[in-house]
Amino acid sequence: MKTINRIITLFVLVAGIVACEQTDETSFVLQEVSAPTKVNAVFDIANDDTGTVSVTPTAEGASSFEVYFGDVTDETPTTVSPGETISHVYVEGEYTLRVVAIGATGLTSELSRVVTISFTPPTELAIAVAVSTTNPFMVTVTPTAENATVYDVYFGDEEDGAEPTTIMDGESAEHTYAEIGDYTIRVVARGAGAATIEATETVSIAGATDPIVLPIDFESATINYAFESFGNAGAGVIDNPDASGVNTSAKVGQLVKPEGAEVWAGTFLTLGAPIDLTQSTTFKVSVWSPKSGATVRLKLENATNPDVFAELDAVTTTANAWENLVFDFGGIDTTTELQKVVLFFDFGTAGDGTEYYFDDVSQVTATVALPQLPLDFEAGLAYEWVGFGAADFGPIPAAVISNPDMSGSNTSANVVEITKTAGAQVWAGASLQLEGAIDFTSGTTALVKVWSPRAGTPILFKIEDTSSTPDNNGNPSVFVEVTATTTTAMAWEELAFDLTSAAAFDTNISYDRVILFPDFGSAGSDEDFYFDDIMLGTGGGNTGGTAEPMMAAPTPNEDAASVISLFSDAYTDVTVDTWRTDWSQADFEDVMVAGNATKKYSNLSFVGIETVANQIDVTGMTHFRTDVWTADATEIRVKLVDFGADGGFDGGDDTEHEIVIANPTQNEWISLDIPLSDFTGLTSKSNIAQLIYSGNPTGASTLFLDNIYFYSAAAASTEPTAAAPTPTVASANVISLYSDAYTDVTVDTWRTDWSQADFEDVMVAGNATKKYSNLNFVGIETIANQIDATSMTHFYLDVWTADATEIRIKLVDFGADGGFDGGDDTEHEIVIANPAQNQWLSLDIPLSDFTGLTNRDKISQLILSGNPSGAMTLYVDNIYFHN
């Protein structure tokens, strides 16, 4: 059975292509089940001697609230929806107001406030105002008064008619001013009666006054970062627009070089004291430039004499990403008093409206040399990997870290980690600048140790000559690219990239940058890849991948009575005129794959499959299904053509539509299960006469096809009529909790006493199945027999639901002490959003997707939950770990 993560991915991808909109590449939405947070209540009281109050509860993650007003014994709470305001009438007195926020899983958080109801006018109003010690623009106002229920606070910078900030007695109000100045804070104290009392207090906002010191990181709200710009440039402190890569800080400096700005335009900051050059004469500046190859000049200048200075240039090596530039002023007289820090961006070029960012201006101990092949990431060199290609086209994380899997062929201490974040571009990767050109005397094959979460993953290795003329995207125009494919999952292997296989490769070219593209050709799904020991040799390693499938396509399980099959061993096929028309551009073979008849198309540009003599009426069908395997296609297109009522080609009533599968997974079977409603141009479906496959690279790709048929999805029902699919993973590679196909480990309970769900053992088509109804959440425990899944790569279960709109799956490991809440527990939850209903879903989830589950040797709990909370039913079968 094809896994649900791949089916949903392809469905979403197909729908997105048809609608010409960007879609997510994965159906997993990661989220933790937790109680609501930031519980609060907007409280007000009517000044009409009635004692009427209004309460608007708020919280993050709350689906409803219960409000206890505290003025009766054994009170029944009032249920409130998010955003709803309720009213209540108190008599005079003091009460405890309680707001209970309830999350979708039933977990709760609570807020309590003392409410004073008095019809006596408020008296003795006092105002305490405190200016923050960390943010000189922020004040905290704390009013007190006798007989006051609420306070209206006006901070003195509001527009006329603006609403005040209303707080309850005993609370404080915070406010941040935009500018320095003196402000009059006015507070009005109110009780239940019409009478009020008010007072004022003046606060002086002096703003940032502390002097600038090295290092300059722009994070302090008390330092006055007073930029002085020249040459028509502009500068200031802003929020970091690209908090990633080597700079994730909150604040940075910005320099704008507008159209027509001088070639020498720049800005400077004056430090509070001269730089102590005896500490170091080497400086580092983090910079972000939209241009690679832009000159950045750092100038250090005397506070009063501009003729006393030192300056150096550095050149940016990447575009649209942070990098660290180093300026070594070695040989300078360390007694020179230099107090101004001056920066010029794209020095020597007139302004064109470009924005540049900079941060972390600091003294460093020494210039760190750039690395060169071989790269083992153990030496103290500047391994400054620059990621690129995130979903928003910014950088993805890439850095040298401790080896997370010191085993097999790689037990070294350090490796480089590249995270292909969710939604990252198909070409996302990371680059490393080298110290000069690569020397090929030791060989022309690049050998790289790779750790991938999945087998069959393409890795693209690229080298560039950064001195070559930039292309239209600003990247070097001289480069070489070679691809190899991983053959194992969650283990180290060495891949070989034969550089001579690229026609453009020339050992005389000065290649000085290495780039790695993990899972090239597929959008990111938040996976980590690790690389190490990048070196040159004469061969060895593994080029990865196979040219043809080793396993047969999955066996379909649709009811034969609901199927019209063109080609499948599982059904009786209709007559097909030809599996390759004479106008096709492809080679065709009937082949056997693991004993299963399969269609093979090679050198494929496009191929037509016709049923003109036996046109197919699929008006009663809902889906088109085809299983596809490819080692090289980067795009697959599937077109259906209906010849219309006249039954003839091009008779004026033909209709057709093509579905595009971009970046299909390679080296494994993909089940394309496409709703016929997605073929929006196919307005008639009673005379299907052609099926056309095509793709990219045109004329150079190979497709293996099986199980080509139309079917009608079963009518919705409240329970499954067919058993879950039988697993096919070898028992030696499985740890089973529940499956007729394997020997199960001992499970303590299939419903803990803290669960909120009804549980039954039922039979579905003669197959034992677990049923959970009225499900909020259910805990399944193996505490007495904790599971060691460290050698496993996936968690699998089959689920069936008629009503769930969301399914959540959490794994909990109790840690080394084996006990709950012992301080070393780890857990993670996967969310299946909008699962398909009324059919079995095979969820085959990589354990690497459970990113919070950092331990896997004492798995003690499996928790199932979802929505609608308390009103959904799940049938569950075949629960196991496997590799």
UniProtKB/TrEMBL annotation:
InterPro entries tied to this protein: FN3_dom, Ig-like_fold, PKD/Chitinase_dom, PKD_dom, PKD_dom_sf
Domain (Fibronectin type-III): residue spans on this chain: 35-123
SUPFAM superfamilies xref list: PKD domain
Highest taxon above the source species: Bacteria
Domain called PKD: residue spans: 121-205
Name recorded for this polypeptide: PKD domain-containing protein
Native organism: Croceivirga radicis
Native organism taxonomy: Bacteria, Pseudomonadati, Bacteroidota, Flavobacteriia, Flavobacteriales
